[in-house]
Amino acid sequence: MRLFLKYLATVCAIAIFTSVSIGKLVDHGLILLENSRYQEWDNIARGSINAEVVILGSSRGMTSYNPHIIENGLNKDTYNLSYDAGSFSLQSSKFHLYLENNTTPKLIIQNIDLTHFSTNNVLIGENNMLPFREEALFKNHFSG
After folding, report:
1. Residues 45, 94: contact at Cβ < 8 Å?
2. pLDDT averaged per 10 residues, the chain (length 144)
3. What is the pTM of this model?
């Protein structure tokens, strides 16, 4: 019986180690996907955006403002930080996470529409944060 329990413990330990390793590898691969939401969240958390002009809003803010056109017109680095389908509380959480790790923008463009005034306790797009689900930085801002 003792030999069986030792064998079972070894098999479980190998399975857990393999599962955690594969999870970490997949998370890292998701972050490396070019122009993905995963990479955007990683750039926000790592402080690699540092835009002079930041665009905030929900999905309308995301689709209605082209940061390249604004950047060319103002001659300032511009980044669209809008939160797709996000109410103001989610937009605010994302912006505060941005401020903790990036320089403060000189200009903020805030798109306001009806969803701006709604409250939402459900974290929309949580699957976009899968590689970061265990990081304290994200848990402090998003408790979805």
Report:
1. no
2. 90 92 82 77 89 91 92 95 80 88 94 72 61 60 56
3. 0.70
